């Protein structure tokens, strides 16, 4: 931790040593299975062997942290002079009273669910807000223009509101699902919350590299196109894949351990779910206002990347299913549309940015203005790593009589 704070960790050596330690633990377990296989042959079924091999691979990532936690807790209890097992009340096989009403039984189940969801929500909230702190620290190292505009408070406020909204929606889904299956409700809770934390890192790193927000356009690429882009950009490297796996483990393990814990009271679970439901009716713009609207980059940096990703995909899904608006009683007509036969012909509302730089004249200027989305170096250069898709623009660039404004 001290080396991490001081920034003197040799990361390639760290991940190589980390992989060596994990692989050594897995190999020792596999060797034990092979010794039993060639000697005693207690496990003869293929299903048993595959289960043992899977357990050997997952043991360093799941079971070993639990053992370490128990060992640390035992040392703490030793110095706190707590040597007892605690109160253990015998309940027998009859868990439900014969004369217990249905509503009382549901109330008990709901109370137990709220006690169990409290630790998971608390750990998720800490992990998610920690990711926001890392995001702002990352921006501070790369973008000096964000230091003096107060973008940090907007980023924190927007993500804080989004985190509570996630807890409210996920909490309600968990409480409903746990009446059907306690195991699957807990499993899906941990999977969904850990996925949100991991995707948060991916979204803000994408913005830091491309300076663009990632939205529904992600799903318009085919798998081959995504593979080509990732390979060309150098993202599919061993280091990046190792970092992604480490991030998944860091997000999963604390949530899974918290999933095994319960609070004595349901107050924490009730507080998280209640605040989350209330926050669903609150708009971040109504509280925070607009963040540096004059600079689009600063405004995008101040936004919650997860909120934009979710809103973009939701809007895209609704646009592809216009019947949903009719069910909700909303008019799907675009007020800016001039003619339904030409959906892209809309009322002009673009601000005049170039008017102040141009002078009206009777002679037509020798000027070519191109407005193209995504005209980056990767797509429009002879040396672009994606390809050169605009050869004629390259020819115009070499003509000194033609000016090009992009």
Keywords, separated by commas or semicolons:
4 strands, two-stranded parallel sheet, mainly alpha, two-stranded antiparallel ribbon, 406 residues, 3 domains
Q: Major β-sheet, in short?
A: 2 strands, antiparallel
- DSSP summary: helix tally: 15
Cα-atom radius of gyration: 28 Å
Listing every helix as H and every strand as E from the N terminus to the C terminus, the arrangement reads HHHHHHHHHHHHHHEEEHE
What is the approximate shape? globular
Q: What share of residues are in beta strands?
A: under 5%
What is the average per-residue confidence, as pLDDT, rounded to a whole number? 78
What is the number of beta strands?
Answer: 4
Coarse structural class: mainly alpha
Terminal residue distance: 47 Å
Helical percentage: 55-70%
How many distinct domains?
3
Q: Largest beta sheet: what is the strand line-up?
A: 1-2
Helices and strands, with pairings:
Elements: H1 2-6, H2 11-38, H3 46-58, H4 63-79, H5 102-142, H6 151-177, H7 182-210, H8 223-233, H9 238-259, H10 267-279, H11 284-288, H12 296-302, H13 305-320, H14 323-327, E1 337-339, E2 342-346, E3 367-369, H15 391-397, E4 403-405
Parallel strand pairs: 3-4
Antiparallel strand pairs: 1-2
Helix pairs in contact: 2-3, 5-6, 5-7, 5-9, 5-10, 6-7, 6-10, 6-12, 7-9
């Amino acid at each position: 931790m001290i080396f991490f704070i001081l920034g003197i960790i040799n990361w390639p050596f760290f991940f190589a040593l980390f992989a060596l330690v994990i692989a050594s633990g897995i190999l020792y377990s596999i060797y034990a299975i092979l010794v039993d296989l060639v000697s005693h042959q207690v496990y003869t079924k293929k299903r048993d062997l595959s289960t043992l091999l899977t357990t050997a691979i997952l043991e360093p990532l799941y079971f070993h942290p639990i053992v370490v936690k128990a060992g640390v807790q035992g040392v703490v209890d030793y110095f706190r002079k707590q040597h007892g097992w605690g109160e253990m009340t015998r309940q027998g096989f009859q868990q439900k009273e014969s004369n217990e009403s249905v509503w009382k039984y549901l109330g008990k189940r709901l109370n137990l669910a709220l006690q169990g969801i409290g630790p998971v929500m608390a750990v998720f909230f800490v992990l998610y807000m920690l990711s926001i702190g890392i995001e702002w620290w990352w921006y501070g190292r790369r973008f000096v223009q964000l230091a003096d505009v107060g973008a940090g408070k907007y980023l924190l406020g927007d993500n804080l509101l989004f985190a509570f909204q996630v807890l409210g929606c996920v909490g309600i889904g968990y409480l409903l699902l746990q009446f059907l299956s306690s195991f699957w409700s807990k499993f899906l809770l941990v999977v969904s919350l850990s996925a949100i934390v991991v995707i948060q890192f991916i979204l803000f790193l994408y913005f830091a590299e491309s300076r663009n927000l990632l939205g529904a356009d992600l799903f318009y690429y085919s798998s081959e196109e995504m593979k080509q882009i990732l390979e060309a950009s150098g993202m599919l490297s061993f280091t990046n894949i190792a970092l992604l796996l480490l991030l998944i483990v860091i997000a999963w393990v604390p949530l899974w351990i918290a999933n095994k814990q319960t609070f004595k009271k349901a107050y924490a679970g009730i507080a998280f779910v209640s605040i989350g439901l209330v926050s669903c009716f609150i708009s971040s713009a109504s509280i925070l206002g607009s963040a540096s609207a004059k600079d689009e980059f600063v405004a995008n940096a101040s936004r919650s990347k997860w909120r934009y990703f979710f809103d973009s995909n939701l809007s895209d899904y609704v646009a592809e299913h216009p019947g949903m608006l009719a069910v909700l009683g909303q008019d799907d007509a675009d007020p800016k549309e001039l003619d339904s036969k030409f959906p892209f012909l809309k009322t002009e509302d673009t601000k005049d940015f170039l008017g102040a730089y141009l002078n009206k004249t009777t002679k037509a200027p020798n000027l070519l203005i191109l407005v193209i989305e995504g005209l980056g170096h990767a797509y429009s250069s002879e040396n672009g790593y994606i390809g050169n898709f605009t050869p004629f623009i390259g020819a115009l660039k070499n003509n000194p009589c033609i000016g090009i404004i992009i």
